[in-house]
Amino acid sequence: MVVPEDGTANFDSFVSAGLQQPGLKIPGANTGEFAVAFKIVTGGEYNGTVKLDQGLKKESEHGIIQENLHKGLQVFLQIQVGFLHKKRLYAENRRDTMTIIVTGGAGFIGSNFVHWVVEHQPDVHVTVLDKLTYAGNRANLDGIDAGRLTFVKGDICDAELVDSLFAEADACVHFAAESHNDNSILGPAPFVKTNVEGTFTLLEAARAHDVRFHHISTDEVYGDLALDDPARFTEQTPYRPSSPYSSTKAASDMLVRAWVRTYGVRATISNCSNNYGPRQHIEKFIPRQITNILNGIRPKLYGDGRNVRDWIHTEDHSSAVWEILTRGRLGETYLIGADGERGNYDVLQAILAEMGRAPDDFDWVRDRPGHDRRYAIDSTKLREELGWSPRVCFDEGLQRTVAWCLEHACWFEKLRRQGFDAYMQRQYGLDGR
Ligand code: NAD
Ligand code: DAU
Protein backbone atom coordinates (compact mmCIF):
# COMPACT_ATOMS: atom_id res chain seq x y z
CA MET A 1 0.00 0.00 0.00
CA VAL A 2 1.36 3.38 -0.97
CA VAL A 3 0.91 6.12 1.55
CA PRO A 4 1.76 9.65 0.50
CA GLU A 5 4.21 11.72 2.49
CA ASP A 6 1.50 13.71 4.22
CA GLY A 7 0.21 10.56 5.89
CA THR A 8 -3.16 10.39 4.16
CA ALA A 9 -4.42 7.63 1.93
CA ASN A 10 -7.50 7.79 -0.21
CA PHE A 11 -10.27 5.26 -0.12
CA ASP A 12 -8.98 3.33 -3.13
CA SER A 13 -5.71 2.69 -1.35
CA PHE A 14 -7.65 1.03 1.40
CA VAL A 15 -9.64 -1.14 -0.96
CA SER A 16 -6.45 -2.35 -2.59
CA ALA A 17 -4.93 -2.82 0.85
CA GLY A 18 -7.59 -5.29 1.79
CA LEU A 19 -10.65 -3.44 2.96
CA GLN A 20 -12.97 -6.24 3.96
CA GLN A 21 -16.07 -4.57 2.64
CA PRO A 22 -15.18 -3.62 -0.94
CA GLY A 23 -17.66 -1.98 -3.21
CA LEU A 24 -18.61 0.77 -0.84
CA LYS A 25 -19.96 3.71 -2.71
CA ILE A 26 -18.66 7.16 -2.13
CA PRO A 27 -20.33 9.30 -0.84
CA GLY A 28 -22.70 6.53 0.24
CA ALA A 29 -19.90 5.40 2.51
CA ASN A 30 -19.98 8.53 4.54
CA THR A 31 -21.61 7.03 7.59
CA GLY A 32 -21.67 3.63 9.18
CA GLU A 33 -19.22 1.15 10.56
CA PHE A 34 -16.81 -0.82 8.40
CA ALA A 35 -14.40 -3.61 9.01
CA VAL A 36 -10.88 -2.93 7.82
CA ALA A 37 -7.68 -4.91 7.73
CA PHE A 38 -4.42 -3.60 6.39
CA LYS A 39 -0.73 -3.63 6.97
CA ILE A 40 0.84 -0.60 8.52
CA VAL A 41 3.74 0.69 6.47
CA THR A 42 6.12 0.63 9.40
CA GLY A 43 5.24 -2.96 10.19
CA GLY A 44 2.42 -4.60 12.09
CA GLU A 45 -1.18 -5.03 11.12
CA TYR A 46 -4.44 -3.47 12.02
CA ASN A 47 -7.68 -5.40 12.17
CA GLY A 48 -10.71 -3.62 13.44
CA THR A 49 -13.50 -1.32 12.61
CA VAL A 50 -13.72 2.24 11.48
CA LYS A 51 -16.70 4.40 12.20
CA LEU A 52 -17.41 7.15 9.73
CA ASP A 53 -19.51 10.08 10.85
CA GLN A 54 -20.22 12.65 8.23
CA GLY A 55 -17.98 15.65 8.43
CA LEU A 56 -16.54 14.65 11.77
CA LYS A 57 -13.09 13.71 12.81
CA LYS A 58 -13.55 10.62 14.94
CA GLU A 59 -11.34 7.99 16.40
CA SER A 60 -11.70 4.33 15.77
CA GLU A 61 -12.20 2.00 18.69
CA HIS A 62 -8.45 1.55 19.08
CA GLY A 63 -7.71 5.19 18.50
CA ILE A 64 -5.32 4.47 15.67
CA ILE A 65 -7.33 5.67 12.73
CA GLN A 66 -8.91 8.99 12.19
CA GLU A 67 -11.16 9.75 9.31
CA ASN A 68 -12.28 12.93 7.72
CA LEU A 69 -15.07 13.36 5.29
CA HIS A 70 -13.85 15.74 2.70
CA LYS A 71 -16.73 17.89 1.46
CA GLY A 72 -18.99 14.85 1.55
CA LEU A 73 -17.57 13.47 -1.68
CA GLN A 74 -14.46 11.63 -0.89
CA VAL A 75 -13.38 9.78 2.21
CA PHE A 76 -9.86 10.24 3.38
CA LEU A 77 -8.50 8.04 6.07
CA GLN A 78 -5.54 9.27 7.98
CA ILE A 79 -3.43 6.51 9.40
CA GLN A 80 -1.84 7.01 12.72
CA VAL A 81 -0.12 4.28 14.63
CA GLY A 82 -0.66 5.19 18.25
CA PHE A 83 0.18 8.84 18.20
CA LEU A 84 3.09 8.50 15.82
CA HIS A 85 3.46 11.72 14.00
CA LYS A 86 3.24 11.30 10.27
CA LYS A 87 6.63 12.85 9.62
CA ARG A 88 8.25 10.46 12.03
CA LEU A 89 6.18 7.58 10.78
CA TYR A 90 7.73 7.81 7.36
CA ALA A 91 11.17 8.94 8.36
CA GLU A 92 13.74 6.64 6.86
CA ASN A 93 16.22 6.66 9.68
CA ARG A 94 13.93 6.16 12.68
CA ARG A 95 11.07 4.08 11.29
CA ASP A 96 10.40 2.21 14.48
CA THR A 97 10.88 4.85 17.18
CA MET A 98 8.73 7.67 18.34
CA THR A 99 10.09 10.79 19.97
CA ILE A 100 8.39 12.21 23.00
CA ILE A 101 9.30 15.58 24.44
CA VAL A 102 9.07 15.53 28.22
CA THR A 103 9.08 19.04 29.64
CA GLY A 104 10.27 19.26 33.22
CA GLY A 105 11.88 15.86 32.82
CA ALA A 106 14.64 16.70 35.31
CA GLY A 107 12.15 17.39 38.09
CA PHE A 108 10.52 14.92 40.43
CA ILE A 109 7.55 13.47 38.52
CA GLY A 110 8.97 14.21 35.08
CA SER A 111 12.19 12.29 35.77
CA ASN A 112 10.26 9.37 37.22
CA PHE A 113 8.15 9.32 34.07
CA VAL A 114 11.27 9.34 31.87
CA HIS A 115 12.75 6.41 33.81
CA TRP A 116 9.42 4.59 33.53
CA VAL A 117 9.15 5.13 29.77
CA VAL A 118 12.73 4.06 29.08
CA GLU A 119 12.19 0.93 31.14
CA HIS A 120 8.78 -0.04 29.76
CA GLN A 121 8.65 1.34 26.21
CA PRO A 122 11.68 0.22 24.18
CA ASP A 123 10.62 2.01 20.99
CA VAL A 124 10.45 5.47 22.46
CA HIS A 125 13.12 8.14 22.33
CA VAL A 126 12.77 10.83 25.00
CA THR A 127 13.78 14.44 24.58
CA VAL A 128 13.79 16.22 27.91
CA LEU A 129 13.33 19.99 27.85
CA ASP A 130 14.13 21.42 31.26
CA LYS A 131 15.33 24.80 32.44
CA LEU A 132 17.02 23.25 35.48
CA THR A 133 15.52 25.68 37.93
CA TYR A 134 16.23 25.12 41.63
CA ALA A 135 13.80 22.15 41.34
CA GLY A 136 15.45 20.51 38.34
CA ASN A 137 18.43 18.21 38.64
CA ARG A 138 20.24 16.67 35.68
CA ALA A 139 21.36 13.85 37.96
CA ASN A 140 17.71 12.75 38.23
CA LEU A 141 18.22 11.25 34.76
CA ASP A 142 21.44 9.43 35.60
CA GLY A 143 21.55 5.81 34.57
CA ILE A 144 19.49 6.25 31.40
CA ASP A 145 21.06 4.91 28.22
CA ALA A 146 22.35 7.94 26.29
CA GLY A 147 20.94 6.50 23.07
CA ARG A 148 17.42 6.73 24.45
CA LEU A 149 17.59 10.27 25.78
CA THR A 150 18.34 13.75 24.48
CA PHE A 151 18.64 16.39 27.17
CA VAL A 152 17.98 20.02 26.22
CA LYS A 153 18.51 22.68 28.83
CA GLY A 154 16.01 25.39 28.00
CA ASP A 155 12.90 27.32 28.90
CA ILE A 156 9.42 26.28 27.79
CA CYS A 157 8.74 30.00 27.25
CA ASP A 158 11.45 30.11 24.55
CA ALA A 159 9.20 29.90 21.46
CA GLU A 160 12.03 29.42 18.96
CA LEU A 161 13.60 26.55 20.87
CA VAL A 162 10.24 24.92 21.56
CA ASP A 163 9.24 25.18 17.91
CA SER A 164 12.45 23.51 16.74
CA LEU A 165 11.95 20.60 19.14
CA PHE A 166 8.31 20.11 18.20
CA ALA A 167 9.25 20.01 14.53
CA GLU A 168 11.04 16.74 15.30
CA ALA A 169 8.63 15.19 17.77
CA ASP A 170 5.60 12.92 17.80
CA ALA A 171 4.23 13.86 21.19
CA CYS A 172 4.84 16.05 24.21
CA VAL A 173 4.11 15.27 27.84
CA HIS A 174 4.16 18.56 29.67
CA PHE A 175 5.30 18.37 33.31
CA ALA A 176 7.37 21.55 33.56
CA ALA A 177 5.96 23.96 36.10
CA GLU A 178 6.65 25.96 39.17
CA SER A 179 5.08 23.40 41.48
CA HIS A 180 5.30 24.43 45.11
CA ASN A 181 2.38 26.18 46.82
CA ASP A 182 4.47 27.82 49.51
CA ASN A 183 6.76 29.40 46.91
CA SER A 184 3.76 30.69 44.99
CA ILE A 185 2.56 32.50 48.09
CA LEU A 186 5.94 34.16 48.58
CA GLY A 187 6.45 35.05 44.90
CA PRO A 188 3.80 34.25 42.30
CA ALA A 189 5.46 35.84 39.24
CA PRO A 190 7.42 32.79 38.02
CA PHE A 191 4.26 30.72 38.36
CA VAL A 192 2.37 32.93 35.95
CA LYS A 193 5.32 32.99 33.57
CA THR A 194 6.11 29.27 33.43
CA ASN A 195 2.74 27.70 34.10
CA VAL A 196 0.65 29.97 31.90
CA GLU A 197 2.96 31.50 29.29
CA GLY A 198 5.01 28.30 29.10
CA THR A 199 1.95 26.17 28.42
CA PHE A 200 0.77 28.67 25.83
CA THR A 201 4.13 28.49 24.06
CA LEU A 202 4.01 24.69 23.95
CA LEU A 203 0.43 24.66 22.69
CA GLU A 204 1.32 26.97 19.85
CA ALA A 205 4.11 24.61 18.81
CA ALA A 206 1.81 21.59 19.13
CA ARG A 207 -0.65 23.39 16.88
CA ALA A 208 1.97 24.37 14.32
CA HIS A 209 3.42 20.85 14.07
CA ASP A 210 0.34 18.74 14.87
CA VAL A 211 2.08 17.13 17.81
CA ARG A 212 0.07 15.03 20.28
CA PHE A 213 0.04 16.90 23.58
CA HIS A 214 -0.57 15.64 27.09
CA HIS A 215 -0.88 18.23 29.81
CA ILE A 216 -0.02 17.30 33.40
CA SER A 217 -2.20 19.11 35.85
CA THR A 218 -3.24 18.84 39.46
CA ASP A 219 -6.30 18.08 41.56
CA GLU A 220 -5.76 21.46 43.22
CA VAL A 221 -7.58 23.18 40.36
CA TYR A 222 -10.79 21.94 42.02
CA GLY A 223 -10.09 23.77 45.28
CA ASP A 224 -10.67 21.79 48.45
CA LEU A 225 -13.26 19.66 50.23
CA ALA A 226 -14.37 19.69 53.84
CA LEU A 227 -12.99 16.96 56.10
CA ASP A 228 -16.46 15.55 56.73
CA ASP A 229 -17.63 15.77 53.10
CA PRO A 230 -18.01 12.31 51.52
CA ALA A 231 -17.56 13.85 48.05
CA ARG A 232 -14.48 13.38 45.89
CA PHE A 233 -13.32 15.35 42.84
CA THR A 234 -14.50 14.10 39.45
CA GLU A 235 -13.95 15.37 35.91
CA GLN A 236 -17.19 17.34 36.34
CA THR A 237 -16.19 19.22 39.50
CA PRO A 238 -16.10 22.98 38.84
CA TYR A 239 -12.72 24.72 39.00
CA ARG A 240 -12.14 26.63 42.25
CA PRO A 241 -8.37 27.05 42.75
CA SER A 242 -7.13 28.58 45.99
CA SER A 243 -3.44 29.43 45.67
CA PRO A 244 -1.38 31.34 43.12
CA TYR A 245 0.08 27.97 42.12
CA SER A 246 -3.23 26.20 41.60
CA SER A 247 -4.78 29.18 39.85
CA THR A 248 -1.98 29.21 37.27
CA LYS A 249 -2.41 25.45 36.76
CA ALA A 250 -6.14 26.03 36.27
CA ALA A 251 -5.35 28.74 33.73
CA SER A 252 -3.06 26.37 31.84
CA ASP A 253 -5.80 23.71 31.75
CA MET A 254 -8.16 26.27 30.24
CA LEU A 255 -5.64 27.09 27.54
CA VAL A 256 -5.36 23.42 26.63
CA ARG A 257 -9.13 23.04 26.42
CA ALA A 258 -9.44 26.11 24.21
CA TRP A 259 -6.65 24.97 21.89
CA VAL A 260 -8.37 21.60 21.51
CA ARG A 261 -11.72 23.10 20.68
CA THR A 262 -10.60 26.05 18.57
CA TYR A 263 -7.60 24.67 16.73
CA GLY A 264 -8.16 20.93 16.98
CA VAL A 265 -4.92 20.37 18.89
CA ARG A 266 -4.70 16.67 19.77
CA ALA A 267 -4.50 17.02 23.51
CA THR A 268 -5.52 15.37 26.75
CA ILE A 269 -5.29 16.58 30.35
CA SER A 270 -4.73 14.66 33.57
CA ASN A 271 -5.28 16.03 37.05
CA CYS A 272 -3.42 14.00 39.62
CA SER A 273 -3.30 14.04 43.40
CA ASN A 274 -0.24 14.34 45.68
CA ASN A 275 2.71 12.31 44.45
CA TYR A 276 5.49 10.82 46.54
CA GLY A 277 8.47 8.61 45.72
CA PRO A 278 12.14 8.87 44.79
CA ARG A 279 13.76 12.15 43.70
CA GLN A 280 11.11 14.44 45.16
CA HIS A 281 12.44 17.86 46.08
CA ILE A 282 12.88 18.38 49.81
CA GLU A 283 10.59 21.40 49.77
CA LYS A 284 7.65 18.94 49.68
CA PHE A 285 6.08 17.37 52.76
CA ILE A 286 7.25 13.74 52.77
CA PRO A 287 10.91 14.16 51.71
CA ARG A 288 11.20 17.24 53.88
CA GLN A 289 10.19 15.38 57.02
CA ILE A 290 12.47 12.44 56.19
CA THR A 291 15.47 14.66 55.50
CA ASN A 292 14.73 16.80 58.55
CA ILE A 293 14.98 13.70 60.70
CA LEU A 294 18.16 12.60 58.91
CA ASN A 295 19.69 16.01 59.63
CA GLY A 296 18.64 16.16 63.26
CA ILE A 297 15.90 18.73 62.63
CA ARG A 298 12.46 18.11 64.10
CA PRO A 299 9.73 17.67 61.43
CA LYS A 300 7.27 20.55 61.03
CA LEU A 301 3.52 20.12 60.82
CA TYR A 302 1.48 23.05 59.54
CA GLY A 303 -1.65 24.27 61.32
CA ASP A 304 -3.61 21.57 63.12
CA GLY A 305 -2.13 18.75 60.98
CA ARG A 306 -5.58 17.52 59.97
CA ASN A 307 -5.36 18.54 56.29
CA VAL A 308 -5.90 15.55 54.04
CA ARG A 309 -3.97 14.71 50.87
CA ASP A 310 -4.72 11.83 48.49
CA TRP A 311 -1.32 10.16 48.03
CA ILE A 312 -0.21 8.30 44.92
CA HIS A 313 3.18 6.78 44.22
CA THR A 314 4.88 8.41 41.26
CA GLU A 315 5.24 5.02 39.48
CA ASP A 316 1.46 4.76 39.37
CA HIS A 317 1.23 8.32 38.07
CA SER A 318 3.66 7.41 35.27
CA SER A 319 1.71 4.33 34.15
CA ALA A 320 -1.54 6.31 34.17
CA VAL A 321 -0.04 9.08 32.04
CA TRP A 322 1.20 6.52 29.55
CA GLU A 323 -2.27 4.96 29.24
CA ILE A 324 -3.86 8.36 28.66
CA LEU A 325 -1.19 9.43 26.19
CA THR A 326 -1.53 6.31 24.09
CA ARG A 327 -5.16 5.31 24.56
CA GLY A 328 -6.99 8.29 26.01
CA ARG A 329 -9.66 10.05 24.03
CA LEU A 330 -8.51 13.33 22.52
CA GLY A 331 -9.92 16.41 24.21
CA GLU A 332 -10.70 14.50 27.40
CA THR A 333 -9.65 15.07 30.99
CA TYR A 334 -8.79 12.14 33.27
CA LEU A 335 -8.38 12.32 37.02
CA ILE A 336 -5.55 10.19 38.43
CA GLY A 337 -5.69 8.95 42.02
CA ALA A 338 -4.94 5.87 44.08
CA ASP A 339 -7.50 6.10 46.91
CA GLY A 340 -4.72 7.27 49.20
CA GLU A 341 -6.45 9.82 51.45
CA ARG A 342 -4.50 10.46 54.63
CA GLY A 343 -4.25 13.27 57.16
CA ASN A 344 -0.88 15.02 57.45
CA TYR A 345 -0.58 14.06 61.11
CA ASP A 346 -1.03 10.38 60.22
CA VAL A 347 1.54 10.55 57.43
CA LEU A 348 4.04 12.16 59.77
CA GLN A 349 3.38 9.50 62.39
CA ALA A 350 4.06 6.79 59.79
CA ILE A 351 7.38 8.48 58.88
CA LEU A 352 8.40 8.83 62.53
CA ALA A 353 7.58 5.17 63.17
CA GLU A 354 9.43 4.01 60.04
CA MET A 355 12.50 5.99 61.12
CA GLY A 356 12.36 4.82 64.73
CA ARG A 357 11.40 8.16 66.26
CA ALA A 358 8.98 8.94 69.07
CA PRO A 359 5.46 10.00 68.02
CA ASP A 360 5.88 13.47 69.58
CA ASP A 361 9.29 14.18 68.03
CA PHE A 362 8.07 17.04 65.81
CA ASP A 363 7.01 20.71 65.96
CA TRP A 364 3.74 22.36 65.16
CA VAL A 365 4.29 25.50 63.06
CA ARG A 366 2.09 28.26 61.74
CA ASP A 367 -0.34 27.33 59.00
CA ARG A 368 0.02 27.97 55.28
CA PRO A 369 -2.14 30.98 54.21
CA GLY A 370 -5.28 29.77 52.42
CA HIS A 371 -4.30 26.16 53.17
CA ASP A 372 -6.53 23.72 51.27
CA ARG A 373 -8.24 21.39 53.70
CA ARG A 374 -8.75 18.17 51.80
CA TYR A 375 -8.18 16.71 48.34
CA ALA A 376 -9.81 13.47 47.19
CA ILE A 377 -9.85 11.95 43.72
CA ASP A 378 -12.46 9.73 42.12
CA SER A 379 -10.53 8.06 39.28
CA THR A 380 -13.40 5.86 38.05
CA LYS A 381 -13.23 7.23 34.50
CA LEU A 382 -9.57 6.37 34.08
CA ARG A 383 -10.01 2.92 35.62
CA GLU A 384 -13.13 1.95 33.69
CA GLU A 385 -12.28 3.49 30.34
CA LEU A 386 -8.59 2.64 30.13
CA GLY A 387 -8.37 -0.25 32.58
CA TRP A 388 -5.69 1.45 34.66
CA SER A 389 -5.24 0.71 38.34
CA PRO A 390 -2.56 1.68 40.87
CA ARG A 391 -0.11 -0.94 42.07
CA VAL A 392 1.74 0.64 44.99
CA CYS A 393 -0.06 0.77 48.33
CA PHE A 394 0.82 3.71 50.55
CA ASP A 395 2.50 1.79 53.38
CA GLU A 396 4.82 -0.05 51.00
CA GLY A 397 5.45 3.09 48.92
CA LEU A 398 6.35 5.11 52.01
CA GLN A 399 8.77 2.44 53.23
CA ARG A 400 10.45 2.42 49.81
CA THR A 401 10.64 6.22 49.81
CA VAL A 402 12.24 6.36 53.25
CA ALA A 403 14.73 3.69 52.12
CA TRP A 404 15.52 5.67 48.96
CA CYS A 405 16.14 8.82 51.00
CA LEU A 406 18.46 6.95 53.34
CA GLU A 407 20.43 5.56 50.39
CA HIS A 408 20.66 8.95 48.69
CA ALA A 409 21.63 11.20 51.56
CA CYS A 410 24.27 12.85 49.33
CA TRP A 411 21.56 13.78 46.82
CA PHE A 412 19.83 15.78 49.53
CA GLU A 413 23.09 17.25 50.74
CA LYS A 414 23.55 18.81 47.33
CA LEU A 415 20.14 20.47 47.59
CA ARG A 416 21.06 21.83 50.97
CA ARG A 417 24.29 23.25 49.64
CA GLN A 418 22.21 25.01 46.99
CA GLY A 419 20.71 27.12 49.80
CA PHE A 420 17.75 25.12 50.88
CA ASP A 421 18.48 25.53 54.57
CA ALA A 422 18.21 29.30 54.19
CA TYR A 423 14.99 28.86 52.29
CA MET A 424 13.49 26.80 55.10
CA GLN A 425 14.55 29.34 57.66
CA ARG A 426 12.99 32.16 55.64
CA GLN A 427 9.81 30.35 54.77
CA TYR A 428 8.87 28.63 57.97
CA GLY A 429 11.10 30.26 60.56
CA LEU A 430 11.90 28.27 63.62
CA ASP A 431 9.53 30.38 65.64
CA GLY A 432 6.76 27.78 65.47
CA ARG A 433 3.72 29.05 67.26
P1 NAD B 1 9.14 19.82 40.24
O1 NAD B 1 9.10 21.20 40.81
O2 NAD B 1 9.82 18.74 41.00
O3 NAD B 1 9.79 19.84 38.78
C1 NAD B 1 9.51 20.84 37.86
C2 NAD B 1 10.53 20.74 36.74
O4 NAD B 1 10.19 21.71 35.76
C3 NAD B 1 11.96 21.03 37.18
O5 NAD B 1 12.85 20.10 36.62
C4 NAD B 1 12.22 22.42 36.63
O6 NAD B 1 13.59 22.66 36.34
C5 NAD B 1 11.36 22.42 35.38
N1 NAD B 1 10.97 23.77 34.97
C6 NAD B 1 10.44 24.76 35.74
N2 NAD B 1 10.23 25.86 35.00
C7 NAD B 1 10.62 25.56 33.74
C8 NAD B 1 10.64 26.29 32.53
N3 NAD B 1 10.21 27.56 32.46
N4 NAD B 1 11.10 25.68 31.41
C9 NAD B 1 11.54 24.39 31.46
N5 NAD B 1 11.56 23.68 32.59
C10 NAD B 1 11.10 24.25 33.72
O7 NAD B 1 7.62 19.45 39.96
P2 NAD B 1 6.85 18.07 40.15
O8 NAD B 1 6.41 17.94 41.55
O9 NAD B 1 7.66 17.02 39.53
O10 NAD B 1 5.56 18.37 39.27
C11 NAD B 1 5.58 18.14 37.87
C12 NAD B 1 4.23 18.48 37.29
O11 NAD B 1 3.22 17.68 37.93
C13 NAD B 1 3.80 19.92 37.51
O12 NAD B 1 3.13 20.35 36.34
C14 NAD B 1 2.83 19.85 38.67
O13 NAD B 1 1.89 20.89 38.61
C15 NAD B 1 2.19 18.52 38.43
N6 NAD B 1 1.67 17.82 39.61
C16 NAD B 1 2.48 17.63 40.69
C17 NAD B 1 2.00 16.89 41.77
C18 NAD B 1 2.87 16.62 42.98
O14 NAD B 1 2.39 16.02 43.94
N7 NAD B 1 4.12 17.02 43.00
C19 NAD B 1 0.70 16.36 41.74
C20 NAD B 1 -0.10 16.59 40.62
C21 NAD B 1 0.41 17.30 39.55
O1 DAU C 1 -2.42 17.84 45.09
C1 DAU C 1 -1.40 17.93 44.13
C2 DAU C 1 -0.37 18.94 44.59
O2 DAU C 1 0.35 18.34 45.65
C3 DAU C 1 0.56 19.34 43.46
O3 DAU C 1 -0.16 20.01 42.47
C4 DAU C 1 1.70 20.24 43.97
O4 DAU C 1 2.62 20.49 42.93
C5 DAU C 1 2.39 19.52 45.10
O5 DAU C 1 3.38 20.37 45.67
C6 DAU C 1 1.39 19.12 46.18
O6 DAU C 1 0.86 20.28 46.83
P1 DAU C 1 0.67 20.33 48.43
O7 DAU C 1 0.66 21.76 48.82
O8 DAU C 1 -0.44 19.47 48.86
O9 DAU C 1 2.04 19.59 48.86
P2 DAU C 1 3.12 19.87 50.01
O10 DAU C 1 4.07 18.73 49.96
O11 DAU C 1 3.68 21.24 49.96
O12 DAU C 1 2.26 19.75 51.34
C7 DAU C 1 1.48 18.60 51.63
C8 DAU C 1 0.71 18.87 52.90
O13 DAU C 1 1.63 18.89 54.00
C9 DAU C 1 0.01 20.21 52.92
O14 DAU C 1 -1.21 20.08 53.63
C10 DAU C 1 0.96 21.11 53.71
C11 DAU C 1 1.59 20.15 54.68
N1 DAU C 1 2.98 20.44 55.09
C12 DAU C 1 3.90 20.66 54.12
C13 DAU C 1 5.21 20.86 54.45
C14 DAU C 1 6.24 21.12 53.38
C15 DAU C 1 3.34 20.39 56.43
O15 DAU C 1 2.50 20.17 57.33
N2 DAU C 1 4.64 20.59 56.75
C16 DAU C 1 5.61 20.83 55.82
O16 DAU C 1 6.81 21.00 56.18
Task: Give an overview in words.
This protein is of the alpha/beta class. 36% of the residues lie in helices and 20% in strands. The protein has 13 helices and 19 strands. It has helices spanning 11-16, 86-89, 108-120, 159-166, 181-186, 189-209, 244-263, 285-294, 314-327, 344-354, 380-386, 394-407, 409-428, and strands spanning 8-10, 32-39, 45-52, 58-59, 65-70, 74-79, 98-103, 124-130, 149-153, 171-174, 212-218, 267-272, 275-276, 300-302, 308-310, 312-313, 333-336, 341-343, 363-365. It is globular. The model is unreliable at 1-44 and 49-95 (pLDDT under 50). It binds nicotinamide-adenine-dinucleotide and 2'deoxy-thymidine-5'-diphospho-alpha-D-glucose.
Key descriptive features of the protein:
433 residues; alpha/beta; 7-stranded parallel beta sheet; 4-stranded antiparallel beta sheet; 13 helices; 19 strands; disordered N terminus; binds 2'deoxy-thymidine-5'-diphospho-alpha-D-glucose
Write down the Rg.
24 Å
Q: Structural class of the secondary elements? A: alpha/beta
The multimeric state of the shown protein is: single chain
Q: Helix proportion of residues, in percent?
A: 25-40%
- Amino- and carboxy-terminal Cα gap: 73 Å
Number of strands: 19
Which residue ranges are poorly predicted, with pLDDT under 50 across at least 5 consecutive positions? Answer: 1-44, 49-95
Gross morphology: globular
The fraction of residues assigned to DSSP E strands is: 15-25%
